[in-house]
UniProtKB/TrEMBL annotation:
GO terms for biological process: polysaccharide catabolic process. The lineage of its organism: Eukaryota, Fungi, Dikarya, Ascomycota, Pezizomycotina. Residues 44-329 form the Glycoside hydrolase family domain. It comes from Penicillium fimorum. This is Glycoside hydrolase family 5 domain-containing protein. Belongs to the glycosyl hydrolase 5 (cellulase A) family. Keywords: Glycosidase, Hydrolase.
Amino acid sequence: MAFLNGITHHGRHIRDADGESLKLASINWYGASNINFIPSGLDVRHRDEIAQLIRRLGFNSVRLPYADEIVDPDPVVNSSLIAANPDLFLTATNGKPRSLDVYHAEVESMTAAGLLVIVNNHIRQATRCCGINPCDIIWYNDWLAGGRFCRIRQSEDKWIRNWETVMNPLAKNPLVLGADLRNEPRGLWGTLNWDDWATAAEKVSERLFAINPYWLMIVEEISSANDLSGVQSRPIKLSRPAQVVYSVHMYKWSGRGQLYPFSKGSYSEFAAAMNKNWAYLLFDDIALVWVGGLGAAGELSVDEQNYWSHLVRFLEVADADWGYWALNARKADGEWVSYGLVGDSWDWESVRWDSRLADLRRLGHGFN
């Protein structure tokens, strides 16, 4: 597909410059947003091999989260964490790879394997996950007494400049699909409103268009990213309107604005909530919505089975684009991840071939 010279979406469908349609069947591969500053698994497997593993699983695209901390201060990477990637030492300044070097090398390996890449600014301070750190609940923290209480200080303009630093070297890579601008911007105790985030998303998008006007700009909802109803009254407005993609996340604990989380209730209740929160954009052919975060444990509890079966059924009906969380077998600290698809043998090669992958195949993978 010819992406660099004109990737757009028309209503709910992505199309390339030749008019061919594409459905995103994505996998999240995290690590560059966590405490080691680089994608996980590079200590035991070369990144090219992990790219081939992703292809064998049937995904056509990869969402790669990063923390602003890998941009500034861009720390030198612990050599043991990239032991299976010795070529990174040869190309690095003074033989010392930095986190952003590794991130860009990861992107190049994914696209060399024919995978589309979605770059995601996940968090500011590299950490295990999201939490409720007041220094990291939105894309900037200089509102918090000038940021002096925060280990990683950041203004909105610094956030945008970080985006430019990450994306500039990728400008001519035709398989870099675009930018997922911020993971689940939350605000403190519900204080963030959609208009503030929409305005910031528009600002950073226009700056990134100056680097490559064909990138898709992916905008998540605020809070837990499971409600796009605000788009009805306040859509994202860009100079290239066909480049806007909205994104939601759907997990068993999701259910903002509902009486109970999505792990409870009937399918009809679940479907009604999806239609109200985001699927109206698809069914009315208004905009593309990418369900960029969804996942389940390998051994489903009763509640999780309820959520997962309802979600898979609804995504099939809606023919929606999606992204599974996650590839990783373990977190950066070594803790086993029940949601991961890589096996638990520390080899980054074995796969948990269970009902989740069977369901994802039914939804439609890019290479199957």
